[in-house]
């Protein structure tokens, strides 16, 4: 794997320096720059062309949500990982709608952060399990409201029909539980003594049976269908 180019955006210098030190411990990860506010990260995204941006959501001049929207519009190939403290359900939904590929909390373990960066680089979507639980609560609240046509969400609650006959195998449910716990494909393969390619094949089947497009939607669907508990 080539080195993954990373841009760090956070308005706190100590946090930026801490992230840089942690990320540079992995030889496959290369921090190419840092930004202190939303306008700065949008500008440097064009200049540095990183593969991944680690984005704080609460920054001056322009918050991380608006910066993410502008970056995804201008440079759709750049992937964004939101790194933040736990926010409200509605904030989480808005950030995921903006196009982030990962959403992790600031207490994330360094090894887990490196694994998240690599997974997002390979095209996976990585959402912290606590954040996924918040998404579920938001969808449940939305379902209880009589008129929600004015509200837009990252996922369509109508896709999660509780009467849907998904017919998942025991192995697929086992893998789905690992996904809901935030375990990456490589670690799932190791835990189940199967190849990573086999894990990916199972996940493809899970997505097809649940009628979803990514890991977050799969977990939300599984929770609503009572296939897994968070």
- Principal-axes shape call: globular
Q: Give the terminus-to-terminus CA distance.
A: 33 Å
CA-based gyration radius: 18 Å
* CATH architecture level-2 label of the largest domain: 3-Layer(aba) Sandwich
* H/E element sequence: EHEHEHEHEHEHHHHH
CATH class bucket of the largest domain: Alpha Beta
- Biggest beta sheet summary: 6 strands, parallel
Tally the helices: 10
- Residue runs with pLDDT of under 50 for 5 or more positions: 147-164
- Largest sheet strand order: 2-1-3-4-5-6
Tell me the count of domains: 2
Write a concise synopsis of the structure shown.
By secondary structure, the chain is an alpha/beta fold.
Structure write-up:
- By secondary structure, the chain is of the alpha/beta class.
- It has helices at 13-23, 38-48, 64-74, 89-98, 110-121, 129-144, 170-180, 185-192, 196-210, 215-224; strands at residues 4-9, 29-35, 52-55, 79-84, 102-105, 126-127.
- It is built from ten helices and six strands, in the order E-H-E-H-E-H-E-H-E-H-E-H-H-H-H-H.
- A six-stranded parallel β-sheet has the order 2-1-3-4-5-6, with helices on both faces.
- 37% of the residues are buried.
């Amino acid at each position: 794997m080539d080195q993954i180019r990373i841009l760090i955006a956070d308005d706190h210098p100590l946090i930026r320096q801490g992230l840089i030190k942690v990320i540079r411990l992995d030889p496959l990860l290369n921090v190419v720059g840092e930004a202190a506010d939303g306008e700065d990260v949008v500008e440097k995204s064009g200049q540095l062309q990183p593969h991944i941006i680690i984005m704080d959501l609460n920054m001056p001049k322009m918050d991380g949500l608006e910066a993410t929207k502008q970056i995804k519009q201008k440079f759709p190939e750049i992937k964004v990982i939101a790194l933040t403290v736990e926010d409200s359900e509605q904030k989480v939904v808005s950030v995921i709608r903006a196009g982030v590929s990962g959403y992790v909390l600031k207490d994330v373990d360094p090894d887990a952060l490196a694994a998240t960066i690599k997974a997002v680089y390979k095209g996976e979507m990585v959402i912290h399990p606590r954040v996924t639980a918040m998404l579920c609560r938001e969808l449940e609240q939305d379902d209880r409201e009589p008129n929600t046509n004015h509200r837009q969400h990252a996922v369509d609650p109508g896709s999660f029909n509780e009467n849907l006959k998904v017919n998942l195998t025991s192995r697929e449910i086992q893998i789905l539980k690992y996904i809901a716990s935030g375990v990456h494909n490589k670690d799932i393969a190791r835990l189940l003594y199967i190849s990573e390619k086999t894990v990916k094949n199972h996940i493809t089947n899970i997505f097809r049976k649940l009628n979803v497009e990514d890991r977050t939607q799969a977990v939300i669907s599984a929770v609503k269908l009572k296939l897994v508990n968070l």
